[in-house]
Amino acid sequence: MLLKVIDLKVVLEGNVILENINFEIEEGERVGVIGPNGGGKTTLLRALTFQIPYEGKIIYKEGIKVVLVPQIKNINKFFPLNVKEFFSLFDMNINDIKNFLSDDIFKKKISNLSEGELQKILILQSIFQKPDLLLLDEPTSFLDPKNKENVFSLLENFYKERQFSVLVVSHDLSFISSFAQRIICLNKNLICDGFLNQITPEVLERLYGYKVGIYKHKH
Amino acid sequence: MGVLEILIAVFTSICLSILSNFIVLRRYSLIADAFSHIALPGIALSLIFSIDIFWGSLIFLILGALFIYLIEKKTSFYLEAIVGFIFLLSLAIGKIFIKDQELIESLFGNIKGISLNDFILSTLILFFILISILRFKKELILVTLSEDLAANYKIKKHTVDLFLLFMVALAVSLGIKIVGVLLVGSYLIICPLFSSLFAKSFNQLILFSIFFGFLTSILGLIFSINLNFEFGPVLVIVQSLIFLLGFFIKNLL
Asked: Is the full-model pTM beyond 0.95?
């Protein structure tokens, strides 16, 4: 067992955001978290990285490395940090990542990157920290189908190389259903937790409050 | 005007111009500008007890930094307005307790009044700030980019901000002596504006702002000696003209 969450409760500014959350993640497991806006998905990731106060227990296997790949929006246009400088902040060797990126990207400013480029860079940065558990926050939101495919195959490739666990939060049901083995539904409480075939249209309707279709990528 | 004045002006300008980049990145420009006025009651107390105004300013600015830290950490109150409120209160206290001539000096600076002591202080503070920025560059950049990303490295935004404001307090306390409470903001605001016009990387941003602070301080000294004007106001005008020239070249040519 890599992570065990027991009776997690998060209250922010008087509002209960998460309550009665219990789940476990095994080594090498890929878990998707779905749920409506305001359902507490990002809050769960912030609690798991100890950024906000919480009640209950979050227990990691000793000595493991947890890395969060956040959503980064609205980067200050004044910020001239370029991609090369970004990687050098983490003492990363540019030669190791050259194969994954086009040559001209290294001189670009972080604030001028497209969403697809930024997401790719964030994922590369996090993978090279050699995580045991990777927490991904909406890695495919705002991406067009081609960039989605890129992010998907980037993750798949690294996963084949080194079987780390992944907890990915996403609105993108097609992405989640192709990438994750298990799905957790979150809307303040834990609405469901099971394998893909257990997530029926009825469960989704209960989660979102209306009918939702789920389509699987073909790979 | 001797070597001492030139060195202090240059050292202070380097301190303030380096920090100014992080101030703008953290979207603290207006806060930092108003923040410098918190020194006024400290200056009043220094004058009453005849101690160096550097220490009075520093104590009040550090208290101000702690206050901002607590407001940010514990409440979701609108920070700009709170700092603006302290600014008004400080100005009122300053006007009542500081004699008019000394108040003018506090507001606009008096580079002729500096001593060897100030030189030693400015050297120490310059080294402290340079070393801190090099050592904590990653922390300062990451909290600006994303708190969530910084969390991977156990970096806390509020702690980094407090440290940044603490460095600003040191630099501003120096700056008050030479350009005054009102004009110390020119380094904090105009330096990064200028360097951001031309910087293609973060390192360039820092280097250009230091260069700009250095160059305008020297030009400001030359003009203020030759034309017999106060250094502070001359500096602001020189910085503004060079910034506007840069802005014109960059955007309109």
From this structure: no
